[in-house]
Amino acid sequence: MRKIRTMSSDDKLVAQRRKMIVEKALQVFLKKGYERATMRDIGKACGMTHGNLYNYIASKEDLRHLILMRDIDGAARLRDYRTKLGDVTCARVLSECMAHFLRGMDSMTGPLLFFDREVYKFPQEDRRVALAAEVAVVSFFEELLREGVEAGEFQVRNPTLLAHDILMYGHDWAVRRWFLKQHVTLEEYIEHHVRLVLESVTTKARQAARTSSTASAAQVQNGIDGVK
Question: Whole-model pTM?
Fold first, then answer.
């Protein structure tokens, strides 16, 4: 994260004020567009004078960067959550982590809409950061799927693609919940998609196990018949 100028030496106050300013700036950017919005618009939304705003933020570019960095550690939070689950089955880990991720996406509507509209205007460095954050989430779920395969719980043809699907379930809820909430609650949405993923990976594993078991039984029977 790049260093952002401030005129205050009170780090706690700066953090509190910036959090509020970022929230208000995001609302202004979504309403007016990043290019049309001015620092005066943002100051008015924050209930601050134009001059006071500059005590904590130097430019719109600073605000854009802070919005980007606000939710950049999604994969790290997922890993912390995974650690807290302890020693449980791969299916339990996947279902719990998916639910945790999807609940978190319920508060991401504003940032995702902003990124979708404005990301092509971001400096190259910020675009790389945004992409890396999404890749990290995909990598996290890919690891969970591969662990399940290694443990014999899952059978997945393309873990990377399925992990990307999980990411997009979160994006879909965040940007289309205005429509989805007319038909399902967040918890129903989570239950549906967790079940969808688990059935796709565990049913195949059970089918493979049954096929293997049937083949083994046939081999044994053939061996017995051969002895006879």
Answer: 0.77
Q: What is the CATH number of the domain that holds 65?
A: 1.10.10.60
Q: Secondary structure of the chain in the HEC alphabet?
A: CCCCCCCCCCHHHHHHHHHHHHHHHHHHHHHHCCCCCCHHHHHHHHCCCHHHHCCCCCCHHHHHHHHHHHCCCHHHHHHHHHHHHCCCCHHHHHHHHHHHHHHHHCCCHHHHHHHHHHHHHCCHHHHHHHHHHHHHHHHHHHHHHHHHHHCCCCCCCCHHHHHHHHHHHHHHHHHHHHHHCCCCCHHHHHHHHHHHHHHHHHHHHHHHHHHHHHHHHHHHHHHHHHHC
141 in a domain, yes or no?
Answer: yes
Is pLDDT larger for residue 184 or for residue 220? Answer: 184
Is residue 225 predicted with pLDDT exceeding 70?
A: no
Is the same domain home to 109 and 81? yes
